[in-house]
Amino acid sequence: MLETILSLYVTLMSVIFAGVANMAFCKYPTYQRLNIPMDAGRLLSDGKRLFGQNKTWKGFIGMILFGGLSQIVWGLILKTIPSLESLNLFYDVYANSILTNLWIGLLLGLAYIVFELPNSFMKRRLEIMPGKPANNQWKWFFIFIDQADSLLGCALIVAVLVPISWTQFFGFIILGAGTHIVINQLLYFLKLRKNPF
Questions:
Q1: Torsion angle of alpha carbons 117, 32, 26, 109, nearest 10°?
Q2: What pTM, to 2 d.p., does this model score?
C-alpha cells in the first residue's frame, strides 16, 4: 500500500513542481504581454465570461513549458536514486531520457491546464467570482473540483501512456487533490495565492 502511494507521488511529482513554478511565474511581472485572459474578455450569449479574468495565456503557456522542464529535471534527479526511479510508472514503459521526459512533461502540463477550463466555465455560469471560492450551496463541490480537475487530466495522460489499474487511476485523483489542498495552503501562506483553496 505504502509503495503504491509512493509510486503515485513519484510518477507525478514533476506536476507539483510545475504547478508551483507556474504560480510564481504568473504572480511576478514578467512577460506581461502574455498576461491576457484566454477568453479576451468576450461575453457569451448569457452575458457572462467564458473562463474569466484569471485564466490567462501566461498561465496556460507557462504550465505547459514548466511541465516539460520539471519532468526533465525530475527524471535527472531520479537517475541518481534508482530505488525511486523504479517507482515511476512512466519508466516501466519508456526510457528515462531527456527527450521522453520533455514530451511527457509537455503533455502533463497541457492536460493539467486544459482540464481546469471546464471548471472555470461552470463557475462563470454560476456567477462565482474568478479566483474566489463559492459562498453558496456549491462551496464544497467546487473546493473539491478545484483540486481534482487538473489531476483528472494528468491521470488520463498516465492511463493513456501506461497500463494502470482503476485503483491507481482514482488514487492519482484523490491523493493528488489532497496534496493540492496542502500546497495551496502553503502558497497562500507565501502570498503566491490569493485564497487558501
A1: 50
A2: 0.88
With beta carbons less than 8 A apart as the criterion, state whether 59 and 85 touch: no
Q: How far apart are CA 170 and CA 114, in angstroms?
A: 19
In the block, cell 472555470 appears at: 120
Please list, in sequence order, all residues whose beta carbon lies within 8 angstroms of the beta carbon of residue 47, skipping any fewer than 6 positions away: none
Query: Would you tell me the crossing angle of helices 98-114 and 57-79 to the nearest 10 degrees?
Result: 140
Cell numbers for 3? 509503495
**By C-alpha distance, which of 92, 60, 61, 95 is closest to 75?**
95
Those residues with Cβ within 8 angstroms of residue 1's Cβ, 6 or more apart along the chain or in another chain:
none
Any idea which residue has 483528472 for its cell?
Answer: 152
Residue 136 pLDDT: 66
174 CB contacts (<8 Å, ≥6 apart)? 148
Residue burial 99-138, b: 16+ Cβ < 10 Å; e: rest: ebbbebbbbbbbbbbebbbebbbebbeeebeeeebbeeee
User: How many angstroms from the chain centroid is the CA of residue 129?
Assistant: 20
Blockwise average pLDDT, block size 10, the chain, 197 residues:
86 94 90 90 87 92 98 98 96 97 98 93 80 67 81 95 92 83 74 64
